[in-house]
Write a structure and sequence with these properties.
Length: about 290
């Protein structure tokens, strides 16, 4: 009896070790979960809107529900790149239109879930990554520069500031929060490698992080038509306390873009200084859930 028990126990141990070993091997050979997801997510996206600094998602809503945002400046860009509203409002399966938002402000987490849910019902392919874009992946301290929400969340930044009432004053009490950041150059490289070719528009309004990200995209050779058709950007040099370094980066980047030297391997992406602050408070109702 005792002998049988020993054999059984030893057998169980061998099997357990074997299973653990196989699991580790399986885990090693599988592609990273993120890349795998990305590939599946964007396989059918021939028209992609990347919204960097999505705030509460208003630009993505302008893309799919333009009738709720009349006269918003950005609509002309959507019309030009992705077709008229009647086309865009069809399911993504038909149009190939997808939108990806990046926003780390924890304040909008539930808003994003509601939009994602309502849009899934409409067949609109939209994802919000609850991360800030940067030139590296990890964590960073951001400041809630928003006077308890009175400025609609636009001040969420790596920089402590407040620009209310037309004057700039450094806001001492802005609460810091640690947020995940994602290397956008790497993300874009993965997207470019997995999504089908088509039309790609990127909006960048990221409260001072644009210098890090644009320099990275420039170095990576990603400010090119073969990767992005159009970029709209708002520069924020005034957010920096040490102006000298950022002003040098600012004029270097703008000059390079203006002289069409930002892409060595083909035509440069169309890059515009463009900012649409309309409907900052949004407040438009979401599409009704399907019954
Ligand atoms: C992509 O399109 C195919 C064919 O229409 C469909 O079967 C598949 O589910 C789509 N994938 C996604 C992620 O939408
Ligand atoms: C924000 O609200 C808190 C608590 O209600 C208050 O103590 C604080 O003074 C407010 N801060 C600003 C900048 O309004
Ligand atoms: C990110 O950008 C900052 C500022 O341009 C630079 O100092 C830093 O080295 C960059 N980080 C990486 C990983 O490239
Ligand atoms: C993006 O993809 C296109 C075609 O798939 C390729 O020609 C181009 O080199 C890629 N861009 C980068 C920066 O890798």
């Amino acid at each position: 009896m005792a002998g049988t028990n020993v054999v059984l126990t030893a057998g169980t141990m061998v099997v357990t070790v074997l299973i653990c070993f196989l699991k580790v091997q399986l885990w090693r050979t599988q592609p990273s979960h993120k890349e795998d997801t990305l590939e599946r997510e964007f396989r059918n996206c021939t028209k992609i809107f990347l919204d960097l600094g999505a705030n509460r998602g208003t630009h993505i809503r302008k893309l799919f529900e333009p009738e709720k945002y009349p006269d918003a400046k950005y609509l002309q860009i959507f019309d030009r790149l992705f077709g008229p509203p009647t086309f865009r409002q069809q399911p993504s399966k038909v149009t190939g239109l997808c939108a990806i938002g990046f926003e780390a402000n924890p304040r909008w987490r539930d808003t994003f879930s509601s939009i994602e849910r309502a849009y899934r019902d409409k067949g609109w392919h939209v994802i919000f990554y609850r991360v800030a874009v940067s030139n590296r992946t990890g964590k960073a301290v951001f400041y809630k520069n928003d006077f308890n929400g009175s400025n609609s969340g636009w001040g969420f930044s790596r920089h402590k500031h407040n620009r209310e009432r037309g004057r700039q004053h450094w806001m001492q009490g802005a609460p810091p929060v640690l947020v995940p950041i994602r290397d956008f150059g790497v993300f874009l490289q993965q997207l470019n490698a997995t999504a089908p070719s088509g039309t790609r528009l990127m909006k960048m309004d990221i409260e001072g992080s644009e210098y890090d990200v644009m320099l990275e995209l420039l170095e990576n050779g990603q400010l090119c038509k073969h990767t992005l058709d159009m970029i709209t950007i708002e520069w924020h040099p005034w957010l920096f306390r040490d102006r000298r370094e950022v002003l040098a980066q600012d004029s270097f980047l703008r000059r390079t873009i203006q002289e069409s030297r930002a892409c060595a391997s083909g035509p440069q992406a169309d890059i515009w200084d463009f900012d649409d602050e309309s409907y900052l408070g949004d407040g438009q109702p979401l599409p009704r859930p399907r019954l």
